[in-house]
Amino acid sequence: MDTRAAAQRFADTWQHAWTHHDVTAITALYRDDAVHTSMPFRPPHQGRQAIADYITWSFTGESDPHVTFATPIVDGDQAAIEFRVHAHDDGRPITLAGCVFARFDADGLAVQTRDYWHTTDGHH
Predict the structure, then answer these.
(1) In the chain, how many domains are there?
(2) CATH of the domain at 55
(3) Domain carrying residue 56
(4) Which terminal CB of the chain, N or C, has fewer other CB atoms within 10 Å?
(5) Rounded to an integer, what distance in angstroms lies between the CA atom of residue 47 and that of residue 60?
């Protein structure tokens, strides 16, 4: 699978699966030994199961997410994909905006991903 197709599948799947809190669909995008860094200074999540656990935890308390992923910017085996989420977190409205950088293998699975994101509670 070429990187552009892999990156678009990654974006489309994340957009739909985040909306529906479908952790299984998301983790299927990652190779078994993938590494995900959720913020620049947090320790990485190593392996598909650790990534699944992190995603499950991150969805806790979140409701009614409206998720959009932009068209991936692709270079070689890597892609940068912006995303934005409007949701409620424990009942409070919240907006999250960020970007994921992903590197894909020849089968189109993510082998390394890292996110940069910020949230606002709408009171700014």
Answers:
(1) 1
(2) 3.10.450.50
(3) 3-120
(4) C
(5) 21
Mapped onto helix, strand or coil, the DSSP state of residue 48 is helix
What distance lies between CA 60 and its chain's CA centroid? 15
CB–CB of 86/65 below 8 Å?
yes
0.90 exceeded by pTM: yes
Residues 6 or more apart in contact with residue 64 via CB below 8 angstroms: 87, 88
Instruction: Provide the residue-wise pLDDT of the chain in tens; the chain has 124 residues.
Output: 899 999 999 999 999 999 999 999 999 999 999 999 998 888 999 999 999 999 999 999 999 999 999 999 999 999 999 999 999 998 899 999 999 999 999 999 999 999 999 998 755 4
